[in-house]
Every structure is written in C-alpha cells, then in structure tokens.
Write a structure and sequence with these properties.
By secondary structure, the chain is of the alpha/beta class. It contains 19 helices and 12 strands. It has helices at 40-43, 76-79, 83-98, 111-123, 138-143, 151-155, 195-200, 210-222, 237-251, 253-260, 270-284, 298-307, 317-330, 332-336, 374-388, 390-400, 418-428, 443-457, 463-477; strands at residues 66-72, 102-108, 130-134, 172-173, 176-177, 180-181, 190-194, 312-315, 338-341, 355-357, 362-366, 432-434. Helix 3 crosses helix 15 (374-388), helix 3 (83-98) crosses helix 16 (390-400) and helix 18 packs antiparallel against helix 19 (463-477).
Length: 478
C-alpha cells in the first residue's frame, strides 16, 4: 500500500465531502468542528514516503465525442489531506484521460460557493451536465424535472451488486433514484471505549444493552471514573451523535424517510416519543454520563476519555481521528486498548440493534436535459458510475481506510495500524447503517429540536412537548 506524506494534525476529520450532517446544516460539518478528513497518517501509517496507489484504469469505449461538463467542489486545496476529494479528483482525471474524444470541462468551486452556485443554476433550469446533488435538494429538484432518473441505470450497473444500497436513501424520491452517492462516509455515532478498563469492570467488550452499562456504571463511579463521556454543549451533538441512531432503534428506517418525503410520519408518533423518553431517562435517571454533558462540547468530552477520566466516549469519526492521533503520540498502552461499539440497545426498542448512523451527503447526478442526446447521456452515466465505483472505493480504502458507495472485498489494510483496521471494519463491514437526521429536512426544524433536547436531557421538558414542538416547526418550515 502506498500513501502520501501528510502532517499529523490532532484536530481533523469531518468535511462536507465526507458526510452531510453531524451539525447545523444539511451539508456542513459543525461550525466548531474542523472541516477536513483524516490524512493517511492520521488514520494509521503505512510507508510515509510513497504516493497514493493509483486506481484501476477506466474503459474508453464510448460513442460520444464532444463536450461534457461536470461541476463539483473537490478543489486542489481540499484534496490535500482529504481522502474523499483526493480520490474523486484522481478517478475523475483517470476517466478524462481514458476518453480523448470527450472534452471534459470541470467547474470546480469551494464547497460553500458550490452550494450557492448550484442552487442558482437549478433555479434558472441551467444545471451542468453532471453535478453533485445534495440530499436535501433531491425532492424539490426531482419534482421539478431537473434531474435525470437513474433508477434503471443503477439497477443495471455492472457494480450494482457491490453498492451499499442504504446510501441511496437521500437521493430516492417516490422509489426513483436520482444520483450515485459520491465521496466517502463516516459515522456520527461511535462508542470508543478502553478495553482494559471495561474488562476490569467485568465486561470483555462494551455492553450491548443499556442495562449492562448501568451495572458497569456502579463500578466506575465507585472508582471516580466517568462511565461514558458525552458533550452536548453545541446542542447539535445530542441529535447527530446520539438521537438519530437511538431513534432508529425504535422507529426503523422507514419512519424517518417518510418524514423526509412528507409521507405521513410525524415527530409525535409513539415510537419516536419513546426514543425521546429513553434519551431523557439515560441522562436524568442513570449515572452513566458526566454531569456537565450539556455544558461541554464533544472536544471537551473526548479529553475525559484521553486522560483516563472516562472509560468510554460517544462521538463521531472526527473524534476517533483526534483520539487516535493523541493516544498514538502520547499513550501507547491506551492507544492499543481502543475499542469500538455501537450504542447499546434500549430494553423496549425492537429495531436494528447493530446500527450506527453514516451516510453520503452528495451524489453524482445528471441534468435531465442530457437525455436529449442518448450518446452524451451514456457518457455521463459512464462517468458517474466510474467515479463512484470500484476504482474510487479501492483507492480511498487502500490509501485512507475510508469507504464509499461501492463495497470493496478483501481490502488490503495491512499497511495501517490495527486500530485503524478495526475502525474501518467497524464502520463499513461489521455494522448496519442508518440515516443522520440533520442531513435532511431543514435547519429550522433542527434548531427547535436541538434546543429542546438540551432541556429534555436536563429533565425540564417532557418528551411529548419536545415532539410537539418539533412537529410544529416541521409543519411550518418544511
């Protein structure tokens, strides 16, 4: 395995190109989180002196000859230290080289500018031939006929059997799929725990039920140790890093996608209220979490874990990267004891006990007008398939220990350290996935819910009131 030499930064990973959600905007990382993916050395080290391995070559057998435009935000600046953007640019250049009869024009903008510009072009019905579609725009743009329906093409793709079907959800409207999910995905809800500390408490692995976590909490509290550290000082963490996974354990995935599609689901539905009630119980009636959970941020909470003051921590993949780098540099024993787990299952929940929230917030989509030229359409589809297919997935897996739309069998992770290999398998192989709530809908809803969640976790508002307020905001703004 080969890798590009990049400096180890202790504050890294989550970018909009890695994931939509985990924050205040449907396509932005939290304002207080660094918006960059982990470079290769942060994710675990192979040979630092070598360049990233090249992807497989693209086929040049297409009938179309002419101009094809693609608009995206993987700038050269962003690709430095950003596995998703580096991979995207690499496979895009390779496809371009394999098709000399096609003039591929790339309109590359910084992420924030891209979102503004693509929305302007959509409003004018002047979208590029190929572009990155944000999940939150799928319903509106599909209903306006702006985006080509790729359902049949995706189903007949030579890579179809290897697609992670869950990633298509944000780009599916009324059963039709409007994009190939692009770039890389990372979790917003991972339990990072110290294996040695939990073994001392009597558990060979992090418990799979909250009941057992409560039992372990008795031991840890007696030792003056926080059982599980959590920080909700930014208000978004309870939503992104906790509730969207816990909620799925009660509602299952169809409920949330119905909410997104305005298909009849409501925040006031019984199962979601149960998820709110369990969240309140865990934070008000048990001694699992640090008392200052609503005052400290996830950066503060993860320091409790790094210092040994907490036996576990709940956060996102960017926190894992930070903890990885901190412990690798300063505490080899604790580094080697890093373990990963999903949220424990509530006693009254019946859905998806092995789930964690992960997603791809953008997809490669095609302007519906391109279908007027069948040869050009075939070229656009070939491009979309290639830059989201095995070439991309293998490149980011082998060089950055990241995953994309296409599953990669037998990835050679041997050049990475064992912890990075474990986290890769936990993220992409050994767990089920669910949606990140704030990757969808609108901030006007999440601002209300996130504020109420803090109050709920303090015990000062009922689950029913939180649900009613969120539903009112949903009906007024979405």
């Amino acid at each position: 395995m080969k890798k590009k030499l990049l400096s180890v930064l202790l504050c890294s990973v989550l970018t909009a190109s890695l994931l939509a959600g985990c924050g205040n905007s449907a396509a932005e990382a939290p304002a207080d989180e660094p918006q960059t993916e982990a470079p290769a050395e942060e994710a675990g080290g192979a040979d630092e002196s070598e360049e990233p391995a090249a992807p497989a070559e693209a086929s040049g057998d297409l009938a179309f000859a002419g101009e094809l435009e693609i608009m995206h935000y993987s700038t050269s600046e962003e690709s430095e230290g950003n596995g998703g953007s580096d991979g995207f640019r690499t496979v895009l250049a390779q496809w371009d080289e394999a098709h000399p009869d096609i003039t591929l024009t790339q309109n590359v903008l910084a992420n924030a500018e891209y979102k503004t510009q693509i929305a302007t072009l959509a409003a004018a019905n002047d979208l590029p031939d190929v572009f990155l579609l944000q999940g939150m725009n799928s319903i509106d743009w599909a209903s306006q006929g702006l985006v080509y329906d790729l359902t049949a093409d995706i189903e007949s793709s030579p890579y179809a059997a290897d697609y992670n079907q869950a990633y298509f959800a944000p780009f599916t409207v009324d059963g039709k799929i409007y994009g190939y999910p692009a770039l890389t995905g990372g979790t917003c809800t991972v339990v990072i725990y110290d294996k040695a500390m939990w073994k001392e408490a009597g558990f060979d692995a992090f418990p799979s039920t909250w009941e057992d976590v409560e039992k372990a909490a008795e031991y840890f509290n007696g030792q003056g140790i926080i059982p599980v550290a959590f920080g909700n000082g930014g208000k978004w963490q309870a939503n992104s890093d906790f509730l969207s996974t816990l909620g799925n354990r009660y509602t299952g995935p169809d409920w949330f996608m119905s909410l997104v599609a305005k298909g009849g689901a409501a925040f006031t539905d019984e199962e979601f209220v149960k998820a709110l009630a369990e969240t309140q119980r865990l934070f008000t009636e048990t001694e699992i979490f640090n008392e200052d959970f609503n005052a400290v941020t996830n950066e503060d909470a993860r320091e409790y874990y790094i210092s040994g003051d907490a036996a576990a921590f709940i956060g996102g993949n960017w926190d894992e990267s930070y903890i990885w780098a901190a412990l690798q540099a300063d505490n080899e024993e604790k580094f080697n004891n890093m373990g990963f787990a999903v949220l424990p299952q509530p006693a009254d929940a019946t859905q998806a006990p092995n789930s964690q929230n992960i997603g791809l917030g953008y997809a490669v989509a095609i302007n519906a007008k391109v279908a007027e030229d069948p040869d050009k359409l075939a070229a656009a589809i070939d491009l979309a398939e290639y830059i989201t297919g095995p070439a991309f997935a293998s490149y980011v897996a082998e060089n950055y220990a990241l995953g994309g739309l296409t599953k990669v069998a037998d990835v050679d992770l041997s050049g990475f350290d064992q912890i990075t290999q474990d986290f890769y398998n936990w993220s992409y192989v050994d767990t089920e996935t669910c949606e990140i709530y704030d990757s969808y809908i609108t901030n006007a809803v999440w601002d209300v819910l996130n504020t109420d969640l803090q109050t709920l976790m303090n015990g000062d508002i009922t689950p029913e009131e939180v649900a009613a307020n969120a539903q009112a905001a949903y009906e007024a703004n979405y």
